Amino acid sequence: MRALTWHGTNDVRVDTHPDPEIINPRDAILKVTSTAICGSDLHLYDGVIPGMASGDILGHEFMGEVVEVGSKSSLKKGQRVVVPFTISCGQCFFCQKQQYSACDNSNPAAKQDASEKLYGHAMSGIFGYSHLTGGYPGGQAEYVRVPFSDVGPIVVPEGMDDDTVLFLSDILPTGWMAAENAQIERGDTVAVWGAGPVGLFAVQSAMLMGAEQVISIDHHPHRLDLAKKFGAKTINFGETHVLEALMEMTGGIGPDAVIDAVGMEAHGFAVDNVLDLVKQKISPGADRGHALRQALLAVRKGGRVSVPGVYGGMLDKWPLGAMMEKGITLKTGQTHVQKYTHDLLRRIQEGEIDTTWLISHHLPLEQAAEGYKQFHDNQNEWTKVVLTAN
Amino acid sequence: MMLEQSEDDAPKRARRDDREGEMAVVGRSVTINRPRVTLFAFWRDFQNLPRFMEAIEKIEPTGPQRSRWTIRAPAGQMVTFEAEVTDVKDNERIAWRALPGSQIMTEGTVSFSDAPAGRGTIVTANIKYQPPGGDLGRLVAKLFMAEPNIQARHELKRFKMLMEAGEIATADNRKSKEDR
Predict the structure, then answer these.
(1) Above pLDDT 70, what percent of chain A?
(2) Which of A17, A97, A138, A306 is least crowded, fewest Cβ atoms below 10 Å from its Cβ?
(3) Is the Cβ pair B173, A137 closer than 8 Å?
(4) Which residues belong to the signal peptide in this entry (chain B) (predicted)?
């Protein structure tokens, strides 16, 4: 099969790999129809996530047709399914608490050592997202093996196009959980750093959850225009003093909740010896701003901070004083996708949520490398790339 | 064959000095979301152990309390020894040791206790062993990534996967190693 393959920093290519096989009873094999490039794939592309190996197949936002099932899969051949990016067994303590992205059993035992060293506890498995999370071959491929296929994949009702449901795999639930973690109350102002796909879905979700005012912060005019579509106000940090603007737009109080949908590459983070151990090159993101630090300063006293943005290592100059003295609550985490897919699918079916406006480009899988380059270099226009695989 | 407790409440295996005389001590606790009875029964049938212990090629019963263990040692070698069960308390504890004169001197206990608030079972394995060739042997073992402490940790995780999820997670895309 053909698959988008990581070879090193800023070097991805579509290569030929052996087709996947059923290995475990709960597996299914999908023939991928649509697969998207995620903003977090750009962290891999830039080489700032530890634990990548040359030859890894990327992709964790994908859907397709079931072509083969193991003896304990609940899926049937021919079904169209969307697959959550987090791999979850459904049986462990965490899965049963619906904390699916903390699954104990999806990251192969020998692969758990690295994240146990780095984070104190092993991470769950994630498709196509470094060997810290299992080194699972991803879905930017013609075929993909889906473990625990009885827990993750959601069957797509007939008549719904790929584009309308594909983002159930990651960014829509991620934006939704980001807004949920902001614990929005009546009258709240929610400020969202980053108008990428997750930031925009967080804006949309926060509006649906009843925020009085949502403020989207970015520097790409086109992306800010998209945020306006959902009734958000905008701040272009290239032109405006963000902290001052936020105070002025909230009657001198500051936003009640803030969402960092930017992540690690806006900040640059310090590297320590532990990271060296897993032999990864991690470079600080130099002058890309200070979204999370700024968010911590901006949020009102007693406010809430929600962090869907991806971080992989250490962050220094953390304004812990601001957190403590203002009594801030912070919630974060990889998305518990399986917890949200059914509800969000219903909202899509009922027309409450539409996600297709986000897609700026469709490309065939063969042109995936070009898609990465454009999504990386031309963020204003290339808001979301969907690859068609079969 | 309870291991001696250190002065604080931490188990011996968590101490900086993880030795008891000539024996090295390794071990690990893991909480498994399954009833004690189920886990005990699975472990009590030693023939099941190679399903999650990758270093063990096979365990064959040779008598009511005895079994022959074939272990994959570093550098592709196989080591066999005969073990006997020294203590069993139903649904609580199983202890075993290699018979005197074996190539590997080892003894182990696995114990099962209820986790609080219906969270399943806490499984604790304690293994004592005489490192083959002493420290040098242990160093060699480390080089081959078969350091017993790491192995014990991985094995308990695979046990947990098998008991909770019914299968052992792998990122492999192909059954045959040559294909991957």
Answers:
(1) 94
(2) A97
(3) yes
(4) none
Structural fold of domain A2-170+335-388: Quinone Oxidoreductase; Chain A, domain 1 (3.90.180)
d(CA B177, CA B180): 6
Q: Assess A147–B contact: CB distance below 8 Å, yes or no.
A: yes
Q: Average of pLDDT values for B43-60?
A: 92
- The CATH class given to the A172-332 domain equals alpha beta
**What is the CB-side half-sphere exposure of residue A25 using CA atoms within 13 A?**
7
Contacts of B174 in chain A (CB under 8 A): 18, 20-21, 23
A205 three-class SS: helix
Per-residue confidence (pLDDT) for residue B114, from 0 to 100? 98
Q: Is A225 helix (H, G, I), strand (E, B) or coil?
A: helix
Contact assessment for residue A332 and residue A181, using Cβ atoms and an 8 Å cutoff = yes
Q: How confident is the model at residue B50 (pLDDT cuts 50, 70, 90)?
A: very high
Helices (H) and strands (E) in chain A, counts: 13, 18
Q: Which residues contact A287 (CB under 8 A, 6 or more apart)?
A: none
**Per-residue confidence at B144, pLDDT binned at 50, 70, 90?**
very low
Answer yes or no: is pLDDT of A38 > 70. yes
Note whether B169 contacts A134, CB cutoff 8 Å: yes
The residues pairing with A257 across neighbouring beta strands, listed in sequence order, are: A190, A304
> What pLDDT does A271 receive?
39
The SS3 of residue A10 is coil
Give chain B's domains with CATH numbers.
Answer: 18-46+85-168 (3.30.530.20)
Q: Where in chain A is the domain with CATH 3.90.180.10?
A: 2-170+335-388
CA distance A295 to A191: 8
H helix runs in A171-240, sequence order: 171-181, 197-208, 221-229
| CATH 3.40.50.720 domain span(s) along chain A | 172-332
Write the single-letter amino acid at A357.
Answer: W
